[in-house]
Amino acid sequence: xxxxxxxxxxxxxxxxCGKPCIKYCPRVRAGDETIVINPDDGLPxxxxxxxxxxxxxxxxxxFGALRVVNTPEAxxxxxxxxxxxxxxELYRLPIPxxxxxxxxxxxxxxxxxxxxKILAGEIKLNLGRYDNPPDWTEIVRFYRGSELQAYFEKxxxxxxxxxxxxxxxxxLPIAVKGEVKDLLHKVDERNVTTRLVKDLELTGxxxxxxxxxxxxxxxxxxxxxxxxxxxxxxxxxxPSSYLDVKERIVVAKSIRELANAGKMVVTVEHDLAMLDLxxxxxxxxxxxxxxxxxxxxxxxxxxGINAYLDGYIADENVRFRTESVRFDVRPSPPxxxxxxxxxLKFEPMEKKLGGFTLSVxxxxxxxxxxxGILGPNGIGKTTFVKLLASIIEPDEGNPPDxxxxxxxxxxxxxxxxxxxxxxxxRDAAGKNFSAGAYDSEIISPLELRPLLDRPIKxxxxxxxxxxxxxACLSREADIYLLDEPSAxxxxxxxxxxxxxxxxxxxxxxxxxxxxxxxxxxxxxxSDRLMVFAGExxxxxEALSPTDLRTGMNSFLRxxxxxxxxxxxxxxxxxxxxxxxxxxxxxxKGEYYYVA
Length: 595
Ligand code: ADP
Ligand code: ADP
Ligand code: MG
Fold this sequence. Notes:
The chain is of the alpha/beta class. The protein folds into five domains: 2-71, Alpha-Beta Plaits; 74-159 and 238-324, Rossmann fold (3-Layer(aba) Sandwich); 162-230, no CATH class; 342-546, Rossmann fold; 560-595, no CATH class. The protein is 32% helix and 21% strand. Strands 5, 6, 7, 8, 9, 10, 11, 12 and 13 form a nine-stranded mixed β-sheet that branches. β2 and β3 form a beta hairpin. The model has no long low-confidence stretch (mean pLDDT 91). The chain binds adenosine-5'-diphosphate (2 copies) and magnesium ion.
């Protein structure tokens, strides 16, 4: 093990604490300058060569800002980058290959964006020597014999053209102004606009200003603008955010075409069915989020995703999760619901919003049941959930029983709460907050402990999502409504959230509706399904809940997509269009669960 000291800079508040890290450090007391205040930023700096690693400073820090972490010996010599003293360390790099897509998966804070920025040349890698950075000759020598040698040689000679779709596309309208069609024509170096506009269904938004697009529209425009550039290397950071299932699949296909044209492609993806569809190779990021990240060697896509679900990388003998994840190949059989079991029966309703109309067929949900909601963007899923939560009233039909207690996590989260995570959760959980089970049921599964003292306003999108889910499940209710809980969070957290929702619902004998676009999570979480059909942004129909097989078939038939199962994990994999299985399954009408 190689020991390093990490300071979480956003958590350290040296003005407010009397600096117990320095005061109690045994080496400082013995007269060494092991921890000193860095005059540049006023933060403590730990001299790692003097530190004895007893971790007293870690225990004394009231903000949990210091950590002593051990990185595996095996990767010690493969340190790629360190931002500065006592900061995050990245080990190894993904290897871009011509004609191939390399998919990156792993938790937030493990260095995926850092790795992409290094490959983009936006960050010059320093091999950990932030105080004495190597020049290109040395970097190239370091990678001698690996495929990265040629990559960095070309980068140094400015012979590599690279485009990068960043993670946070909501900043895009600040950088580019004007109509979508002008933007797309301006960057079209490969003469592909017409095809992309058709494939990515952008015809309807060409005349619109970039500033008024929805998240899903903006994402598709950003992907199109990236593909249009004529480059050697294409880097995509989370291209499926904000997209529905169909949009995810067309984006995946468009990205794959770059590889077919011989380009090098690297993409970060949390939706495992998308990752599967996109990639030729998969690299798993593991480590200690915020402290260090290690990139696994590249694996074939099937092997890589299965290792990820197993939580174990055999070649490197690394276990990063205790439980492995398996999927039910056979759906739970349809059952009839008795009156005693029923929690809610909702009647047919209709709601108009501007030019959009939603009709809801009636339905019911019972104790211990989770209903997954599937449908395209703009079809009225959020509107339905708001009707159930009595946030809006139907224009026709009876609203759901007002006496029923609902707890609702909206799709769009707001951070306007003046207080910390602890305060928010205590408000939500009441007396349960101090109960022993709260920790094991809510705090631990979502790894919220390090966030507890943080102000809500300072959380990242993914952190805010986890806190909002925790708050929703902390309230006592008969029905839990969760609108897109996997947005902004990594695959690992999605699995944790899915497991937590199921356990809560089963244990308390309550019920939940979950709107979700990540098909594996829907599969994993749902007892039954509710499918929304119609014409996005004009009219939607919320079909009655059905058993899983009927629901998946109804949803996927509309998209024309079939899935097969991985033999090892049972996870769903998209069939190639017109492949033997695709044709067979469509003929049988079995789009998802194959006997
Ligand atoms: P991911 O994309 O996997 O979520 P990132 O590469 O964005 O991870 O971040 C990895 C770690 O690097 C995080 O702990 C982040 O706080 C840290 N980090 C990112 N940029 C900087 C920087 N400029 N200086 C110091 N630390 C940074
Ligand atoms: P989904 O959750 O399935 O993406 P929503 O229920 O959010 O869909 O929206 C369905 C349609 O209703 C969209 O076209 C949206 O623009 C429209 N809509 C939603 N709220 C309003 C509103 N307050 N006024 C006018 N139109 C609205
Ligand atoms: Mg919605």
